[in-house]
Design brief:
4 strands, alpha/beta, globular
Length: 175
């Protein structure tokens, strides 16, 4: 979803523009092949588990972030996720974006790249526009169609703000 690339690009732009140097190593990663079995995220999570000595504090996944239906502004995953991390994201929203409405959601299956990281033992969670419990009221009506070309920059900016708050707070030392 290109809306997520917009979030990652803006986060990177903010870091570079403000000459921010986090105290902890931070990686901004986009994954491929999510729709056909989380292939990109699974491959990288396996490599991280077996081939490096890095301690990964947290992985936050953003998926489907440019549309708002009639329900909440943002949803945080509570299944296939680390609940401490999910609650931390909720606290960040409460503190830094108190006007945003948000809630927890459950996919019921490993619906996005955070699930790969969670499956391999890393703290992971997802922020999204989608609540699968209310798909008709929150889902972009053009999802997975040739007309899926809409993203609202104001909505995307809320995810950028969450990502920057997360990065800054975690760089201080933990969740």
């Amino acid at each position: 979803n290109v809306s997520v690339i917009s979030v990652l690009t803006e986060v990177l732009h903010s870091i570079v523009f403000n000459e921010y140097h986090p105290a902890k190593t931070t990686r901004i990663i986009a994954f491929a092949a999510e729709e056909i079995g989380l292939l990109g995220s699974r491959k990288l999570a396996i490599e991280q588990q077996f081939k490096t000595q890095e301690k990964i504090i947290a992985m936050v996944n953003f998926d489907m972030v440019g549309y708002k239906g009639t329900e909440k502004d943002m949803y945080i995953s509570s299944d296939y996720s680390n609940m401490d991390l999910a609650q931390f994201l909720q606290l960040l929203l409460n503190h830094y974006q108190p006007d945003l409405t948000h809630d927890f959601q459950q996919c019921g299956y490993p619906c996005s790249d955070h699930a790969s990281w969670h499956a391999y033992g890393f703290p992971a969670a997802m922020a999204s526009e989608l609540d699968l419990k209310q798909p008709n009221s929150t889902l972009n009506p053009y999802y997975h169609s040739s007309r899926f070309n809409y993203a609202d920059g104001r909505i995307i900016s809320n995810y950028v703000k969450l990502a920057l708050a997360f990065l800054a707070e975690v760089a201080k030392g933990g969740i």
